[in-house]
Amino acid sequence: MKYMMFVVTSLEPDPERDQSDVDLWVGPLDASGKRIIGEVLAPASESTVVKVRGGKVLTSRGPFAETAEVIAGFDILEVDDLEEAIEIASRHPMARNGQLELRPFMVWPDEGE
Predict the structure, then answer these.
(1) According to the 3-state scheme, what is the secondary structure of the chain?
(2) Distance (Å, rounded) from C-alpha 51 to C-alpha 94?
(3) Residues 37 and 111: beta-carbon distance below 8 Å
(4) Where are the transmembrane segments (predicted)?
(5) CB burial string 70-96: b at 16+ within 10 A, e below
(6) CA 52, 55, 57, 60: dihedral to nearest 10 degrees?
(7) What percent of the chain has a predicted confidence (pLDDT) above 90?
(8) Which of 33, 66, 73, 75 is the Cys-Cys partner for 5 at CB 3.0 to 4.6 Å?
């Protein structure tokens, strides 16, 4: 099963947070093949929102909603089940400093469930 794991943090990340903790989490998961890819995202202020209204493409800069938390990064996990995804997420340093959202990839009927 594949899960997208969103790394969620406050708009004002803690400058004291040690990034090496994340590196210690990433290494073994990459080696085991449980983590397919992961990236840190640019700040929400760098985002562009796209929508179509009345046949016109409208864009705006910055986050689309007033919020105290933003998605700071993501990881794609390949695991046996949700329990394994939870166990992996619980070891991520951001589980202590922010939160992690696990969302399964949609399995379409023609993909041979």
Answers:
(1) CEEEEEEEEECCCCCCCCCHHHHHHHHHHHHHCCEEEEEECCCHHHCEEEEEECCEEEEEECCCCCCCEEEEEEEEEECCCHHHHHHHHHHCCHHHHCEEEEEECCCCHHHCC
(2) 31
(3) no
(4) none
(5) bebebbebbbeeeeebeebbeebbbee
(6) -60
(7) 47
(8) 75
The residue ranking higher by pLDDT, 65 or 77, is 77
Distance from C-alpha of 32 to C-alpha of 22, rounded to nearest angstrom: 16
Which has the closest alpha carbon to 40: 90, 105, 98? 98
From the CB of residue 5, how many other CB atoms can be counted at a distance below 10 Å?
21
